[in-house]
Design goal:
The chain has 539 residues and is of the alpha/beta class. The chain has helices at 3-16, 28-31, 35-48, 89-95, 111-114, 132-137, 142-150, 153-163, 175-183, 205-212, 214-228, 242-257, 288-295, 309-312, 324-336, 338-342, 375-382, 415-420, 439-453, 459-476, 482-498, 502-506, 509-517, 519-523; strands at residues 20-25, 55-60, 72-75, 79-81, 191-196, 232-238, 273-279, 319-323, 352-359, 365-370, 391-396, 402-405, 429-434, 531-532, 535-536. It has a five-stranded mixed β-sheet with strand order 10-9-13-11-12. Helix 3 crosses helix 4 (89-95), helix 7 crosses helix 15 and helix 11 (214-228) packs across helix 15. The model has no long low-confidence stretch (mean pLDDT 92).
């Protein structure tokens, strides 16, 4: 395939599209609420009303407002219908002939949507994720062509570097620097890995992107392969994401058929193939060296660094690892240019970030916002605040993050600002808690998760998480003393400073942040000290 043929595919597909497109979300969240039956009934109603010449019903990816699903949206008038029941599909189609369905109709200018800036989610809810033609008609694979024919590999790396994009997996490492490091490594064989092992409680951003726009991720990986000199890529996806895996498999097959993956892409010397590897549900495999071990067929244990994957990664070859959201930004950066992307966000945190906004919040779902927006704007304006009561804390960063008190809601959401207050960006989980939340229980919940997910390779994490959980349990049973509380904090720092990988290093963060901001809830649980001969007895 060449550019002319790509354009022909886009024009032919657009010519087939009807004047009115009814988009029905078919992602996991809406499927759980009978979205597939809604989709079927919408198609039946179009036939019954003889509207087939001008109206088409398309199953699409996530529209974001997950708490209001199933969602149905109509183009071009942008009408949005929330919580659609299968039996209500006919009334929506009837509205196209002058009927009404006002009881279902939502507002696309709702505060949940109004503040969003969509780059990664530009096609989500608009294109059929199982149709490569729909993606091509929306401009897909043009950036890959531009990279191959208009930019040299170093120029692609330079665009990504100047854009200021940082890794969206949690660490925030400069993407361009990582690409440049792998690109300059010697060797004929290099690899690209997409980390889709999203395991944080409350996080579903990567799953949504893979389900909604798999070709966007594949295109980003192929551009990365061209830039660093790799001809083989792997997508590592957790087995708990069957729909994402299914759509990725179909997308890879379609891209191969059109010559957009495989040999001589766009009739150039560039070859790039992509394989899927399915994880078995180990949270630690989100750590890049453990993920590599798993792809190689071994147990997913982290390994000491250096050497870093960029030097000796998959099968000891230079390897580039980025997460799903990072690769999903690449196409737009190449298409619009580094300066455009760098103009969004803050000085040190460029672009947008997707968050899974969940918890005690009126409006929950996926949001994509520019870096630098405040937590207050997200929680109170976009999220609509707490249904009954007030915000007590916001937890960001999953088990690796921290709990931010309501007094700090005006903190900008960027990498450095969140770290400064004891939390982190993480992959994008954002859980809102109200005044009834027990913060010690929250810390215990995350420590229970980390205790269960440790690989057991290093002693600080293997035994430290068990002891931390035990101390938290002792506190909640009101059996702990001040000595136990002091031990809890000291042990947190020990685990943080001596663990082998990021899981152990960050596991104490929820405890440390709640100790910092909600210390009174810990001290209220302490048992009165016991005395023996005028001295505090040590048990």
């Amino acid at each position: 395939m060449d550019l002319t043929e790509l354009i022909d595919v886009a024009e032919a597909h657009r010519a087939k599209q009807k004047n009115i497109r009814i988009h029905c979300c078919t992602s996991t969240g809406c499927r759980a609420a009978s979205a597939l039956e809604v989709l079927k009934n919408l198609k039946t109603a179009v036939e019954d009303e003889a509207l087939g010449e001008n109206v088409e019903v398309v199953g699409v990816g996530c529209m974001g407002f997950c708490g209001r699903g199933p969602l149905v949206q109509i183009d071009p008038d942008d009408a949005l219908y929330e919580e659609v029941k299968p039996e209500e599909a006919a009334s929506i189609i009837g509205s196209l002939k002058g009927g009404t369905a006002t009881a279902l109709k939502g507002d696309v200018q709702h505060p949940f949507f109004a503040r969003q800036v969509k780059i990664v989610r530009q096609h989500s809810g608009k294109v059929d994720p199982e149709s490569i033609e729909d993606y091509i008609a929306a401009g897909g694979y043009r950036s890959l062509y531009k990279a191959i024919y208009e930019l040299s590999p170093p120029e692609v790396v330079d665009e990504i570097t100047r854009s200021g994009l940082r890794g969206r997996g949690g660490g925030g490492y400069p993407t361009g620097l990582k690409w440049a490091t792998v690109a300059k490594m010697p060797g004929d064989q290099k690899y690209v890995i997409c980390n889709g092992d999203e395991g944080d409680p409350g996080a579903f951003m990567d799953r949504s992107v893979l389900e909604s726009d798999p070709h966007l991720v594949l295109e980003g990986m192929a551009i990365a392969g061209y830039a660093i000199g790799a001809n083989h890529g792997f997508i590592y996806v957790r087995a708990e994401y069957p729909l994402a895996i299914q759509r990725l498999q179909k997308a890879i097959q379609q891209a191969k058929k059109y010559g957009l993956l495989g040999s001589q892409i766009f009739e150039s010397p560039f070859d790039f193939k992509v394989d899927i590897r399915i994880g078995a549900g180990a949270f630690v495999c989100g750590e890049e060296t453990a993920l590599i071990q798993s792809i190689e067929g071994g147990r997913g244990n982290p390994r000491p660094r250096p050497p870093y994957p960029a030097q000796a990664g998959l099968w000891k070859c230079p390897t580039l690892i980025n997460n799903v959201e990072t690769f999903a930004n690449i196409s737009a950066i190449i298409r619009e240019g580094a300066d455009w992307y760098a103009g969004i966000g803050t000085e040190k945190s460029k672009g947008t970030k997707i968050f899974a906004l969940t918890g005690k919040i009126r409006n929950n779902g996926l949001i994509e916002v520019p870096m630098g927006i405040t937590l207050r704007e997200i929680v109170e304006e976009m999220g609509g605040g707490v249904p009954d009561g007030e915000v007590k804390a916001v937890q960001t960063g999953g088990p690796s993050g921290g709990c931010i008190p309501a007094s700090l809601l005006d903190t900008p959401v960027d990498y450095d600002s969140l770290v400064a207050i004891g939390s982190m960006m993480g992959s994008g989980g954002m859980v809102v808690m109200d005044q009834d939340t027990n913060m010690v229980e929250v810390a215990q919940f995350y420590m229970e998760f980390c205790r269960g997910e440790t690989c057991g390779k290093c002693i600080p994490c293997r035994t430290g998480t068990v002891q931390l959980y035990a101390l938290l349990t002792k506190l909640l049973k009101r059996q702990a003393t001040q000595a136990d509380l002091d031990k809890l904090e000291a042990l947190c720092h020990m685990v943080q400073e001596t663990s082998l990988c990021g899981l152990g290093m960050s596991a104490p963060n929820p405890i440390l942040s709640t100790l910092r901001y909600f210390n009174q809830e810990y001290t209220e649980l302490l048992q009165a000290p016991k005395y023996l001969n005028g001295k505090v007895a040590v048990e």
